[in-house]
Amino acid sequence: MTKFEEGMNILEERFGRGKDNVIALATISLKNSQEGYPMPCVRDVDAYYEDGAFYVVTYGTSNKIRQIEANPEVSVSVNFEDFFGSGRGENLGWVLDPKNAKLRSKLRTVFKDWYDFANNEADENCCFLAIHLKKGTLRINHGEKFYHFDFEHRRAE
Questions:
Q1: Which superkingdom heads the taxonomic lineage of this protein's source (predicted)?
Q2: Domain range for residue 100?
Q3: Please, are residues 84 and 75 in contact by the beta-carbon 8 Å criterion?
Q4: Which end of the chain is more exposed for a tag (fewer CB within 10 A), N or C?
C-alpha cells in the first residue's frame, strides 16, 4: 500500500463512512480591504467527506457560493481533527436535479438530524457545494506522523 493509499484510508476512517463533519471553509471576499487587499472569509459548515472531496448543503445566493463563483479557490480545516487543505469549490446545483440524486441520498442520511429543518428542497437555490481537495495535510498524534497530500496527482509524502 502506498503512503497516499494509507493516508486516504485514514481520511475515510476519520471523516467518511457517513460522518457529519464540522469544517472551517475559507473563501475570498468579493470586496477588498480598505488598503486594497483581498480579504479572507471563513465560516463553519457541516460537510460529508468522500474520496478527496467534502460536500455541503447550502444556498445558491449565499456569500460562500457567490465568492466561490468569483474565485473557486478555497481552504478547509476539519475542526479538532488535525487536517487542513486547499482545493476548488464547485456549485453542483439544485439538490433535486436528477444528476444529484445519489449525492442527495447520501447527504440526507448523513445530515438526517437536521437536513429537513435547515433546507427547503423545493427552492431551486438549495444546492450542493463540492470542495474538491488539491492539497492537504493530516497530522497524526500531535505531529508524530504527517501525510502531505497531493490529491490531483494521488501522492503523499
A1: Bacteria
A2: 3-156
A3: yes
A4: N
